[in-house]
Design a protein that fits this description.
The chain is α/β, with parallel strands linked by helices. It is 43% helix and 15% strand. Its EC number is 2.6.1.-.
Amino acid sequence: MELSDRARAASAAIEPVTSFFLSLRAMGDRPDVVDLTFGDPHEMPLPALVDAIRANLEPRAEDWFAYKSSQAPAQEAISAGLRAELGLDVEPADIAMTQGAFGAIALAFRLVADAGSEVVIPEPGWFYAPMLRAADMVPVVASLAPDTFDLDVEAIARAITPRTRMVVVNSPANPTGRVYGRDRLVELAAVLEEASARHGRRIWLLSDEPYRRIRFDGTGFTSPAACYAWTLVDYSYGKVLLAPGQRLGYLALSPLIPAADRDALRGVLLPLQLAMGWGFPDALMQYAAPALESVSIDLAELTRRRDRTVSALTDAGYRLTVPEGTFYLWGTAPGGDSVAFAAALAQRGVYVLPGTVFGRPENFRISLTATSDMLERALPALREVGATV
């Protein structure tokens, strides 16, 4: 079969994920399984989410479900939310509504980078490499700091070349749960300014912030958009609402971008989203967006699940990174082989995500979106496998 080079490259980049899915499928359907792999809901949806959708379901005009680009009420509500939450004076016109964070990330890549451009991505990190390969761009890995998984600004500086067009920062970070401090982001901004001047071409920063509102223990948050003018921000409501199947997100332009450059970016957002295949959220989710700005999963309950799981696994001898944000728990697989570790757990009806998905075969990730009962049922298997692998 004559496939495109980009299809082959994207398929190869995402192979660890597809291999894992196939291995789960081979296990067959088991009614007693405890699925700790992805950030999916295991309880009924938030009532406020259902209310917001229901309130907008009944058509109020003939064009209620007509083609929709970015809708002004959604943009205005998000603009007000960014001012209140982050102190960023993002104008409504600088917000492009997208199909979740994936849609916003894909839009950001194509907005400022070309085929053959290099984009520096974190490791461990999420699906950036396959998305870049599908766009004929080149992912360049910059590892996070060993052990702490903090942002390694020196590693990013070493990864930059004359072909670098963008650097991706994900905070709170999936899978590690780390939240990067303002001082480190200021250091990164200085590196990007210097490298842009040295290579004679602007290097952009994409701040991937879908977990921004999910933080523990009063941990603060600084958006890179407040530290480096040439920043694009992507966000998804699927995390804070725990409804990843309802695709709603946005890409925002930093208000620090000079006005003339922001005007140029604004002018191309709509045609680019059209050219990418009508990359806007469904009408119903955009109508619901203003009401959803203030809706959140129960962070106190999520904190209890984090603390209970961290305590139990630490007592069992696991090495863990205690998350400051997100709803994941990142640890070192006993024996150092996360695939063997995940397989041993799967035989006992507990599914976790091996670190091969993130380029770290020695680590694993647990999703804390499982119910407390599911986590309690998983702990004996985790203790048993941890003691034997």
